Each structure stands twice: as structure tokens, then as C-alpha cells.
Fold:
Amino acid sequence: MTVKTILTEPNKILRKVSLPVEKVGKEEQHLMNDMLETMYDAKGIGLAAIQIGIPKRIIVMDLSKEGEKKEPRYFVNPIIKNKNSNLSKYLEGCLSVPDQFAEVNRPSNCEVEYLDYHGNKKILKADGLLATCIQHEMDHLEGILFIDYLSKLKKSMIIKKLSKQKSKEDRVVL
Ligand code: ZN
Structure:
């Protein structure tokens, strides 16, 4: 397993729409292993393949708490079948939007159809943090980030901050 570099906003690749996976084979499983390793390394609870630059409809997640047994989840070609009209609000962050957090409203429950690590078709009924996390990650597959739900002003402030951080990172002092 390899820890990959996570792309951060602003980056055009993060805005790409990811493509469906034809078959879950060795290559896809290898990718899921790398994604999980990358997510654990960055201390995140969810990661979409596009965040490491691969436009495939694959998501990994693990909502277990620190010190608890790990509970990796894999979602290939996820589709939301049902959404609740009730909304719940979470303070969201994202590995591709480092150190920025904002409250986002999303449907509190959803039902997701997907293929698991072995390519088996599964249906999951999710609520609470799990529902929010799945919807956040599925947005990545459409090129959507949580900051897109904020006001224009707030969003542009965050992007400005991130761009500044980036230009610092790129600077080389010799
Ligand atoms: Zn994210």
C-alpha cells in the first residue's frame, strides 16, 4: 500500500466528473488499498479517488474512532436511491480543502446502492454522520466540494486563503 498525494483546492482535477468503474478487479482493489492508506495517513474519514487524481467512481471511508477497531468501507459506483427531505447540519471539512471548516446542510438519511471491495452489489441505509460523509464523498465524484454550498463571499475567502498557502508551499528557499 502506498500513501498518495492528496490534491487540494484550487485544482481543476478536483472539478472533474469521475467515470463509472466497469469491473472491480485487482487494479481497482489496489487503488482502494492505496486510498485507504492515504486517508488514514491524512487522518481523514473519507476519500474519493479523484482526490488523488484518479477520475473513477470509488470512495473509501472509515468512521471508527481513534483506538477502536478499524472499519474500512469501500463504495464503487455508488448511487443514491433515496434521500430524506429532513436536513441535518454538520461542521464539514475536507482533505482537499485543508484546515477549513463550515456548516453544511444535507439530507439526514439516504439509501445507497454500490459495489463493495469484491464487486458485490450492496445497499446501505445510512443516517447521521455516515449519511453526511457518503453524500460529501459522492459530491467529489461530480466535481463538487463542500465549499460550493457556502455563500460566494465565504467560498472566495476560503479559496484565497488556500491559494496563498499553496504559493508558500511552492516557494523554494535556497
Ligand atoms: Zn472531501
User: Anything to note?
Assistant: The mean pLDDT is 95. The chain has one domain: 12-169. DSSP finds three helices and seven strands in the chain.
